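@here heads up, posting the sequence + SMILES for the adenosine-5'-triphosphate run so it's all in one place. Ping me if the SMILES looks off, I pulled it from an old spreadsheet.
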Amino acid sequence: MNKLKIAIQKSGRLSEKSLELLKECGIKIPDFKSKLKNTASNFPLEILFLRDDDIPKYVEQGIVDIGILGENEVLEQEKNVDLVRKLGFANCRLSLAIPKDVDYPGIQFFQNKKIATSYPAIVKNYFESKNIATEIVEISGSVEIAPSIGLADTIADLVSSGSTLLHNGLKEVEKVLESEAVLISNRNLPEDVSIILESFLFRIQAVINSRENKYILLNAPNESIEKIIEVLPGMKSPTVLPLAKTGWSSIHSVVRENEFWRIIDELKKFGAEGILVIPIEKMVM
Ligand SMILES: Nc1ncnc2c1ncn2[C@@H]1O[C@H](COP(=O)(O)OP(=O)(O)OP(=O)(O)O)[C@@H](O)[C@H]1O
Ligand SMILES: O=P(O)(O)OC[C@H]1O[C@H](OP(=O)(O)OP(=O)(O)O)[C@H](O)[C@@H]1O
Ligand SMILES: [Mg+2]
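bot reply: prediction finished. Complex structure tokens:
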């Protein structure tokens, strides 16, 4: 039987979360730390552990069928691959930063400036679209050091918490793009491999749904049930069960993680009590 071949980052910002995703999809990889190529024991998947920069090329050439890496790297390399789906981790942005004591009047500041970056193609396209002439200095890491050693006037690099910029005397002035981990695929997958990919994506969807949602249980006076149901969407509609105490019911539903606190406040207003919120292991819609 044919296998789906996936490339994930060997070590770095994406590796742990990529492996965690496979694990939550129920895929077992024996002895994964010591082998750069491995086979899952319970799913037709072969895993290659690579430098993230090499993944787009391998996917384009069909050496692997799919890969997990940062959207920033996919955009930079402009390879012929399909971006299949976003994965909701390794969220960051590619931003322009300048020395913190320098005034920033607006994007024209960058006219004729030297910009150090590991993302020359993205930065070049960005400034070309704005008709601003710049000189790009390509470096592969420790980009934030460039202005302080006279290598460039400014930088374009990935930012998440902003602490690297802060510790290197820089301030963020423009966001070029937002990025997160994505799954990319070769454009000409054989039929049997596409079928395995579909089944893998189905599992990923269930895992991501479960991460984005919580199961909620609460008790409410019967006269509030209608109002409470209005704020609790549920997968179809909430489950309502009578409690032993007359005039009261237990309501069960699913809420989105990012709406959770707003919903809780409304529920309390309608007299909800004993609210329990439980993580969901897997969620198939
Ligand atoms: N501070 C951050 N917060 C969140 N995500 C980040 C951050 N920095 C980088 N990333 C994401 O993680 C990806 C991998 O980053 P990492 O620093 O591990 O890459 P690398 O040094 O090029 O690794 P490799 O050794 O595999 O070439 C980046 O392309 C980006 O998508
Ligand atoms: O805004 P922050 O939370 O400080 O994160 C930003 C830093 O993270 C990334 O580097 P990383 O630590 O992955 O090192 P590397 O570039 O050497 O791989 C990025 O290149 C920035 O330097
Ligand atoms: Mg790399």
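MO: Residues 51-53 surround magnesium ion (ligand 3) (CB under 6 Å).
MO: One more: The chain has a mean pLDDT of 95.
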